[in-house]
Amino acid sequence: MAIQTKIDFISLGEKEVSKAVIEGTETGMLDVIDAMSNAAMKMAPKKDGHLRDSMASKVEIDGDSVKSWIRFDIIYAAYQHEGIYYRNGNYGNPLNYTHPDARPKFLQQVLDANENVIGKVIAGHIKKSVKGDLAKRVPRR
Q1: pLDDT greater than 60 at residue 6
Q2: Which domain holds residue 104?
Q3: What φ, ψ does residue 99 adopt, rounded to 5°?
Q4: What distance, in Å, lies between the first and last C-alpha atoms of the chain?
Q5: If pLDDT is split at 50, 70 and 90, which confidence band does 5 have?
Q6: pTM for the whole thing?
Q7: Which of 56-70, 74-88, 123-137 has the lowest mean pLDDT?
Q8: Cα–Cα distance between 52 and 74 in angstroms, integer?
Q9: Are 25 and 5 a contacting pair, CB within 8 Å?
Q10: Rounded CA gap, 95 and 79, in Å?
Q11: Average pLDDT, the chain
C-alpha cells in the first residue's frame, strides 16, 4: 500500500520555497505513515506476532516526488490481509482471527478511514514549513 504525492516544483519558482515544500511534505508523510502503521498493526491478526513484526514503512524523496509505503513483508501477509486461508497450495474457508480487533483488510481499512485527513495533515506540514522558510528570508524591521 503506497501513498504518493507529486508536486510540480517548476511552477513554484524559488528553490528555497521548493525545498520547504519538500521538507513539509516529507514531515507530513512521516506523521501520516506513523499513525497509519500503528493503527494497521493493531488491526493485523496476532497469533504469534510474526505478521505484526514484519511491518515496515518508509518515506523517501525522489527528485520532485515524496513517496511513502507501508508493507507487511512476511510471506502470508497478503492472505491474511485478504482474509483467505491458504496452506500447501490449497485455499480454504475465510480466516478466523484470533483476537477481537483483528480483521481482514487491516491496512486498506486504515487508509480508507483516513483518506480525508491524510491530505490535510500533509498540507498543514507544508504550510508550516513554507511559512518558517519565508520568515527566515523576509527582513525584519
Answers
A1: no
A2: 2-137
A3: -145, 160
A4: 49
A5: very low
A6: 0.70
A7: 74-88
A8: 9
A9: yes
A10: 9
A11: 77
Are 115 and 3 in contact by the 8 Å Cβ rule? The answer is: no
Tell me, letter by letter, the H, E, C secondary structure of 25-77.
HHHHHHHHHHHHHHHHHHHCCCCCCHHHHCEEEEEEEECCEEEEEEEECCCCH
* Number of domains within the chain: 1
Q: Which pLDDT score is estimated for 33?
A: 92
Which among 5-9, 30-34, 79-83, 107-111 has the top mean pLDDT? 30-34
The position carrying cell 480483521 is 103
Q: How far is CA 4 from CA 33, 62, 104, in A?
A: 11, 11, 23
Give the cell for residue 109. Answer: 481499512
CA nearest 62: which of 7, 118, 111, 16? 7
Length of the chain measured in residues: 141
Distance CA 51, CA 107 (A): 12
